[in-house]
Structures are given as C-alpha cells and as structure tokens.
Amino acid sequence: MKTEPERDQRGTEAATGAQILLVDDDPGALAMLTDALRAHGYQPVTTTDPREALALLAMERFDLVIADIVMPYLDGFGLLEKARERNPGAEVLLISGYATGEIVREALRKGAAAVLAKPFDIPTFAARVRALLARPPAS
Q1: How many domains does the chain have?
Q2: Domain-located, residue 91
Q3: pLDDT in tens, 11-46
Q4: Inside any domain, residue 31
Q5: Is residue 89 within 8 Å of residue 59, measured between CB atoms?
Q6: What number of H helices and E strands is found in the chain?
Q7: What residue numbers bound the domain in which 91 lies?
Q8: pTM given for the model
C-alpha cells in the first residue's frame, strides 16, 4: 500500500515516503494518532487488530512500526518481536497507558527504539516519530 508523499499546507514535501504501520486497538486513539501523523505529512497504514498488523508486516516493508502495548490477541511485545523478524531495519515505537519503568526497560531490552507513556501530547509524539525516522538504518 505505497503512497506518494503528500505536501503539507506550506507546499513543501513533509514526508520522506516513509512507510509507517500504526496499531492501536482503541479506535479513538488510532484516529487521533492517524490524524496527527497525516497533519505532519505522513500516510500511515493503520489497524486496530494486531493480527491484521502481522499480515501487513508479511506483505510490506515498514520504516517505523508504532504499536500499543496492551492489545487483545497479540500484545505490543509480541508485535515488536514479529516486526523485528519481518522488518529487521524497522524502528519500533511502543505506546502505553501502562508504561511503568519495568515495562519501558523490558520494551527497550526486547528491541523497541522508544516507549511513549499515554497520555502524551501530539508535538512530543510527532517529534519522536521524526527522530526515529531520521535515524540511519542499522547495519
């Protein structure tokens, strides 16, 4: 599901053509984060179902995977593991309303690039996405 980078309101190319997969089982949170990414020029592929995310990971290459940690069927840690297997170069940003110090340490140990604790503000989210996409690919 490749899309051309869109131009932002200033007429400049905002997105680098980065492929972003966004997974959150809360439809309201998914819509808010999708809107935030689109406002910053990205065109994310989104789903509320982590099982669908697994299918998407099998079909597409993503530069960034953003996933909630607490979801039914497959939690964010399981999705992180599958994303790392199927897209070894992808950065993974986990988000959670339950981001205790222990959970953050576990996420980073398992290969997440970062963890954001909900609730977070959109500028913080957008800055983290931008920073993760700016990282040079792992060799």
Answers
A1: 1
A2: yes
A3: 333 446 899 999 999 999 999 999 999 999 999 999
A4: yes
A5: no
A6: 5, 5
A7: 20-134
A8: 0.86
* CA 129 – CA 77 distance, rounded (Å): 19
| The two structure tokens encoding residue 17 | 């053509």
**Closest CA relative to residue 28, chosen from 106, 118, 123:** 118
Give 56-99 as a DSSP string: HHHH---SEEEEESS-SSS-HHHHHHHHHHH-TT-EEEEEETT-
Q: What span, in angstroms and rounded, lies between the C-alpha atoms of 90 and 87?
A: 5
pLDDT in tens, 69-119: 999 999 999 999 999 999 888 999 999 988 888 999 999 999 999 999 999
**CATH number for the domain harbouring residue 41:** 3.40.50.2300
83 belongs to a structural domain: yes
